[in-house]
C-alpha cells in the first residue's frame, strides 16, 4: 500500500487489518525464520526478500494461493495477486 498510494491509506488499511477478526497474525519464531531462510537461499535466481520468503512459507503451510499484494514476487512464486 505504501508504494502504491499514500502513507495515510497504508495506515488505515493496516489498522483495519489489525482490528479485523478475519486476519490472523503469524509471529515469526526460530523455526519459521529458518524455513524462510532456507527458501531464500534456494532461490538465488530471484530478488525475493527474506520477508517475502517467510510469507511464501506461511502461505504454503496454510494452503493459501491468493495474496493481497502489489508485490510481483508473489506472482513469481506462483501465487495469485489481488487485486489483479
Evaluate the radius of gyration.
14 Å
Overall geometry: globular
Averaged pLDDT: 92
Number of helices: 4
Topology order in helix (H) and strand (E) letters: HHHEHE
Biggest beta sheet attributes: 2 strands, parallel
Structural class by secondary-structure content: mainly alpha
Q: What portion of the residues fall into strands of 2 or more residues?
A: 5-15%
Uncertain residue segments: none
N- to C-terminal separation?
14 Å
Helix content: 40-55%
Neighbour order of strands in the largest sheet: 1-2
Strand tally, please?
A: 2
List keywords for this structure.
84 residues, mainly alpha, two-stranded parallel sheet
Molecular structure report:
The protein has 84 residues and is mostly helical. It has a domain at 26-82. It has helices at residues 7-19, 30-42, 50-61, 72-76; strands at residues 66-68, 80-82. A two-stranded parallel ribbon has the order 1-2.
Short description:
Helices cover 51% and strands 7% of the residues. It has helices at 7-19, 30-42, 50-61, 72-76; strands at residues 66-68, 80-82.
List the helices and strands and how they pair.
Blueprint: H1 7-19, H2 30-42, H3 50-61, E1 66-68, H4 72-76, E2 80-82
Parallel strand pairs: 1-2
Helix pairs in contact: 2-3
